Amino acid sequence: MKVIRSKVIGYCFGVSNTIEKAHQCIELSKTMRKPCYSIGSIIHNKDVVKRFQDLGMVTTAKAEGFEPGVALIRAHGIPDSLRRSYLDAGFTLVDSTCPIVAKGAVTLRNAASKGIRTIIIGVKGHAETQGLLGVETQPGKIVDSVLLCSTLMPEL
């Protein structure tokens, strides 16, 4: 058997989509003659982030203090309040939130509309967890780890 080791594994759909949207964001900013931003680091890859910075994309964490322009919402999504602050400040948003993450946000909203309380289990401080925690439904908490077990004994 011959084993061939790949030098590159590749990106998931959400990240591939974000990279494509980042290029669109840069082109749109040039067309509009406005600055280009990424709201947070577009992905967890320093080389890719640097490549887009070299193309003129500036990473921001908030709208305040920046000239309105075209801003990319990264694959991890962002909290609703942060989205609103960019829109209120006059930014044009290009949303590249991963469809799986976006579905999580829709699920949270649907549950809240039915009075169902939800638990978000994720890595504290991670962009995706923060984005989902920022879905405006009701106050939530991040649970770092959970042990699920049953009190029922299985039939042997």
Q: Can you tell me about this structure?
A:
A 4-stranded parallel beta sheet has the order 2-1-3-4, sandwiched between helices. Strands 5-6 form a two-stranded parallel sheet. It contains 5 helices and 6 strands; from the N terminus they run H-E-H-E-E-H-E-H-E-H-E. The mean pLDDT is 84. The protein is α/β, with parallel strands linked by helices and 156 residues long. The protein folds into 2 domains: 13-98, Rossmann fold (3-Layer(aba) Sandwich), CATH 3.40.50.11270; 101-143, no CATH class.
- Order of SSEs: HEHEEHEHEHE
> Strands of the largest sheet, in order across it?
2-1-3-4
Ends apart, CA distance between termini: 43 Å
General shape:
flat
Indicate the proportion of strand residues: 5-15%
CATH topology of the largest domain: Rossmann fold
Q: Report the uncertain regions.
A: none
The structure class reads: alpha/beta
The major beta sheet can be summarized as: 4 strands, parallel
As a percent range, the share of helical residues equals 25-40%
